[in-house]
Amino acid sequence: GGTDSSFGDWYRRYTGRGGLNATAVSWSWMPIKYLSVGATSRYVFGTAERNNKLYFTDSRYDYVGEVEHVSVSDWRWQFGGQLILPFGEQEVTAGIQYEPTATLQATQDYSLYSFNTNAAGAELPLDTVRSRAATLGSIVLGSRLGYGLRWVRNRKNAMLPAWSLAVHYEQINLNEQRDFGSVVPGAYAQPTSTWVANASVVPMLAFSNRRLTSYWSQIQYIAAVRSDRFGLVLNGTEVTGWNANFGVAMPVGGRSFIPGDVKVSTLHLGLSAGQVGSIQNGLVREQYLRAFVGVTLNDQWFMKAKFR
């Protein structure tokens, strides 16, 4: 809200709903051993509605409403490649994905009007200032680039890797996005980016020469860290965040991840801590600590073992 010298105090109310959906068709090809390339064609469709209402505290002035419906229907492409290099029990995987900037066909219904409200708060339309129906145009979605590297050690017939190390980076150029009929950027002043690094280990599989037999050595331990830049600059301050996770995957039922034993389900326990935002320049910061519990059921868990 604010104050205007001609109209007095005012405030805005924004609402919106809808979004984009997609269905995809993918192709892949292995030109040489260990190397795969592919492409995905996505049909993007959906409708988004945006309502912007301007209210004046001085009852002499009518309120102003702006309603926009944008329907999108078009195709978008994504390309990728993956290289898998085995070294005995170890394996290195590198992957990359690229999604170019897409200009998608769209239609817009738009109305700018004045209104009042009754005692119950319901709108009473007065005059239509401007109106457009089924206007042809486009929206623009920014490009995306992601790549990652994973290094694992596998054990023959084991359900999980003995250990793994992975890193992933993704950048989405949200500053390239354009609303319907707009040639200027929206709220995003720069690209968004995300770094993720994670590691996992099952002690019994990773240190097999030590002949570990305890239940705790059969658990998978997982840790991950994440850093985000959200592309928003508010009051001259960039909005960023970070997150750290630690979890365990505990076998139940068969009570083992050891090679050859598949009669197992898994109990997942995890903790997540992180921060989003900043308290500088009048902004808001969120700090959080969360706990997670989950269960994965193996269909063979319900089958009676004939031998072990």
Model description:
The protein is mostly beta strands. It contains one helix and 14 strands. The chain has one helix at residues 203-206, and strands at 2-4, 8-32, 35-56, 63-87, 90-99, 102-117, 123-141, 144-153, 163-172, 192-201, 220-234, 237-253, 264-277, 285-296. Strands 1, 2, 3, 4, 5, 6, 7, 8, 9, 10, 11, 12, 13 and 14 form a 14-stranded antiparallel β-sheet that branches. The mean pLDDT is 88.
What is the helix fraction of residues, given as a range?
Answer: under 10%
* Contiguous uncertain segments of 5+ residues: none
Structural class: mainly beta
* H/E element order: EEEEEEEEEEHEEEE
* Number of β-strand runs: 14
Largest sheet: 14 strands, antiparallel
In terms of topology, how is this protein built?
Layout: E1 2-4, E2 8-32, E3 35-56, E4 63-87, E5 90-99, E6 102-117, E7 123-141, E8 144-153, E9 163-172, E10 192-201, H1 203-206, E11 220-234, E12 237-253, E13 264-277, E14 285-296
Antiparallel strand pairs: 1-2, 2-3, 3-4, 4-5, 4-6, 5-8, 6-7, 8-9, 9-10, 10-11, 11-12, 12-13, 13-14
Task: Report a brief summary of the structure.
The protein has 308 residues and is mainly beta. It is 1% helix and 68% strand.
Labels describing this entry:
308 residues, mainly beta, 14-stranded antiparallel beta sheet, single chain, 1 helix, elongated
